[in-house]
Design goal:
Radius of gyration: 21 Å
Number of helices: 14
CATH architecture of the largest domain: 4-Layer Sandwich
Shape: globular
CATH superfamily of the largest domain: Ribonuclease Z/Hydroxyacylglutathione hydrolase-like
Number of strands: 22
CATH class of the largest domain: Alpha Beta
Strand order of the largest sheet: 6-5-4-3-2-1-22
Structural class: alpha/beta
Distance between the termini: 5 Å
Strand content: 15-25%
């Protein structure tokens, strides 16, 4: 077996791993590079392998940095099949269509043709098959099985077996326990493992602090008479916030103020969540079966149209606005940030990872002014981060998940992190588990 790192090495985004055995070549993920301008340009480079030489792609989960280049792969001559869990397939279609128009704008800035069209997305979905967890299936020389990663609904750890050897791709591992999502499955080990390290150098706040810190943020904004603006990924993070806000409202722990979900994509994705209730954890499933709408509560308003979005401005504070994108790289959140970042009474609350170079990272790191839609905007509002809302495992959880590999693994590969995070996790794993652990370079090939 040969493993080549065509993305996700040395950076958080752009996961793309080529696995070869005999005459079979498959990809694990095929993601978009996100963040700074240099990373965005990489999306327009030629694929590092002939698309027609790939027999199949196995997808860990539906986030764009794991699926975003699939239509480009299809457009470039890929004729094989794509495999994931059923929820991932349904989420992916919505997310790919949503990103298509943003990529068109990016292409214009770069003076390049668009990466792909909506027709390419349709062609991609036509070869995409949904398979359940724990059902082993074959692709040429490989046997593949999905396990629950506990990251977002339908997210998978992928185990691949061939030549009497096995390799596990963690995808993104969840910050378990988390609401709605089942806990990350523990693996029995394997000969090799490719593990993410987004938070490989950090320890999250305790998960029981999620609601308390959200409650504090709402109360502070109500007291100051400002606006709570939350850049949130439409997938998973918005549903997570709705779940917690529902709990806080139902228990009378926060004042009833208008809450706007200003994201057509998040509204559509929430409908997909309701389709896959059997994937929920026991608590969420029990609530749903008892008749509780875990994504709705008094004061919640969903703004689908542009006119409805603009009408938010006319609602006097205090109010809460949740909008995409999660790293403030596009979408409706930019309009709200331009309006409320200069307001000392308001608060911007980050509940997810902010990639290096992103607007969200600039704000979180303390920038006094930021550029939004060609305009210099002063940042006078309060800034806050709740890391316990992260859908990624922190270093202690990553090491605990890797522990079974200490008895079986010949080598571990640490990916999908900024260099400091990856190196920190690799050093900790070597120290605590005594397993050979490397941080691979982009484009490096390894014989397993």
């Amino acid at each position: 077996m040969k493993l080549t790192f065509h993305g996700g090495a040395g950076s958080v985004t752009g996961a793309n791993y080529l696995l070869e055995s005999g005459g079979t070549r498959i990809l694990i993920d095929c993601g978009l590079h996100q963040g700074g301008h240099f990373a965005e340009r990489k999306n327009f480079e030629d694929l590092p392998y002939p698309a027609e030489s790939i027999q199949a792609v196995c997808i860990t989960h539906a986030h764009i940095d794991h699926i975003g280049l699939l239509p480009k792969l299809k457009k470039s001559g890929f004729y094989g099949k794509i495999y994931s869990t059923p929820p991932t397939r349904d989420f992916a279609e919505l997310l790919l269509l949503d990103s298509e128009h943003l990529l068109k704008e990016e292409a214009v800035r770069e003076g390049k043709p668009p990466l792909y069209s909506s027709e390419d997305v349709a062609a991609t979905m036509s070869v995409w098959e949904g398979l359940p967890y724990h059902q082993k299936f074959s692709i040429g020389d490989f046997e593949v099985t999905f396990y629950d990663a506990g990251h977002i609904l339908g997210s998978a750890i992928i185990k691949v077996e061939a030549e009497g050897k096995s390799i596990v791709f963690s995808g993104d591992l969840g910050n378990s326990p988390a609401p709605i999502i089942k806990d990350t499955e523990t693996m029995a080990g394997a000969d090799y493992c490719v593990v993410e390290s987004t938070y490989g150098d950090r320890v999250h706040e305790r998960e029981d602090r999620r609601e308390e810190e959200l409650e504090d943020a709402v109360e502070d904004v109500v007291k100051s008479g400002g606006v709570l603006i939350v850049p949130a990924f439409a997938m998973e993070r918005t549903q997570d916030l709705l779940y917690h806000l529902n709990e806080l409202v139902e228990k009378g722990r926060i004042p009833r103020v208008p809450v706007f979900i200003d994201s057509p994509l998040a509204i559509k994705l929430t409908a997909v969540y309701k389709k896959y209730e059997t994937y929920f954890d026991e608590d969420a499933y029990r609530l749903v079966k008892s008749g509780e709408d875990i994504f709705n509560f008094p004061g919640l308003r969903l703004t689908l149209t542009t006119e409805e979005s603009k009408s938010i401005n006319g609602v006097p504070p205090p109010k809460i606005v949740i909008a995409g994108s999660g790293m403030s790289t596009g979408g409706r959140i930019l309009h709200h940030e331009r309006r409320y970042l200069p307001d000392p009474k308001s608060l911007i609350l980050f509940v997810g990872y902010q990639s290096a170079g992103s607007l969200g990272r600039q704000i979180l790191d303390g920038a006094r002014t930021v550029r939004i839609m060609g305009e210099e905007v002063p940042v006078r509002c309060a800034r806050r981060m709740i890391s316990a809302f992260s859908a990624h495992a922190d270093r202690p959880r990553l090491i605990a998940w890797l522990r079974p590999f200490r008895l079986t693994a010949k080598k571990l590969f640490v990916v999908q992190g900024e260099p400091e995070a990856s190196e920190s996790l690799a050093a900790a794993v070597r120290d605590e588990l005594a397993v050979e652990t490397v941080v691979p370079e982009q484009g490096s090939k390894h014989v397993l």
